[in-house]
Amino acid sequence: MKFSADEKFLFQEKTVSAFLFIYQKEVTYISEVAANIESTFAHTNKIIKRLESIGFLSSVFEGRSRFLKLTPKGYAFAQKLSEAFDICQSDDVFNYPEGYEPTRKTETAEFDTEADASFLTERIEQSGSAAKSDAKSNIKSDSKEKSGSKIKIPDGPLSTADRIKLFGLRIKEVYDELIENESDKTTFLRRLGPFDRELKLIGSEIEKLDLADESAAELQAAYRAAEMQYSFYLGKE
């Protein structure tokens, strides 16, 4: 089996890390992705541009701010990738599908070059280490939760009001799942903690508004409500 240039790119460790982080965040910034995958802004920007060029990612602009979100194709790929990591980390016992029996094929597939074989070995090793890493587990969202998500991201640039609303919906979705699974305090902090950065970014935008304006005052009130909601969720076990 010969891998295309795009396929090789998609399974590089930094690409996988960035891709799954965007999947978990739903809407994010390049700088936030760079910080999470521990990469430079320039290198992360190259990854983002490549993902856009192959139709897996799109950018939306709000003023001078650029936000990232997955395309439907990218979302479908991210779901399968997340499920693959779930299998890597699972302690479940797996069985072959009913009626399946592995047999040697009459025509054996061979690698075209030693480079292809080396590439496959490298990707397997990287995938294994990534699946076992606690740092990587923070960028992976539970596939069951994501597939059942009813949160819709508005098309076009996101307003501050949209971001506050999405923030509230997203943390509630995660919180409800944690309650349902009777998760412990450590899991609450691990799953909800990363949302603190988005809350602070929204807060910095609110501070720039003229609170004498009625709409600005309403945004501030909505932000304070989201802030209280987040604090409440973090304080629960």
What is the topological layout?
Blueprint: H1 5-10, H2 13-25, H3 30-37, H4 41-53, E1 57-62, E2 65-70, H5 72-89, H6 114-132, H7 134-137, H8 143-147, H9 160-180, H10 185-192, H11 195-207, H12 214-234
Antiparallel strand pairs: 1-2
Helix pairs in contact: 2-3, 3-4, 5-6, 9-10, 9-11, 9-12, 11-12
CATH fold title of the largest domain: Arc Repressor Mutant, subunit A
Corresponding CATH superfamily of the largest domain: Winged helix-like DNA-binding domain superfamily/Winged helix DNA-binding domain
Sequence of secondary-structure elements: HHHHEEHHHHHHHH
**Rg, alpha carbons:** 21 Å
Which band does the percent of strand residues land in? Answer: 5-15%
Region (Disordered): 125-154
Biased composition (Basic and acidic residues): 133-148
Structure, explained:
The chain is mainly alpha-helical. It folds into 2 domains: 136 residues, Arc Repressor Mutant, subunit A (Orthogonal Bundle); 76 residues, no CATH class. 63% of the residues lie in helices and 5% in strands. The protein has 12 helices and 2 strands. A two-stranded antiparallel ribbon has the order 1-2. Strand 1 and strand 2 form a beta hairpin. Helix 11 packs antiparallel against helix 12. The longest helix is centred in the C-terminal third of the chain and has 21 residues. 19% of the residues are buried. About 17% of the residues have low confidence.
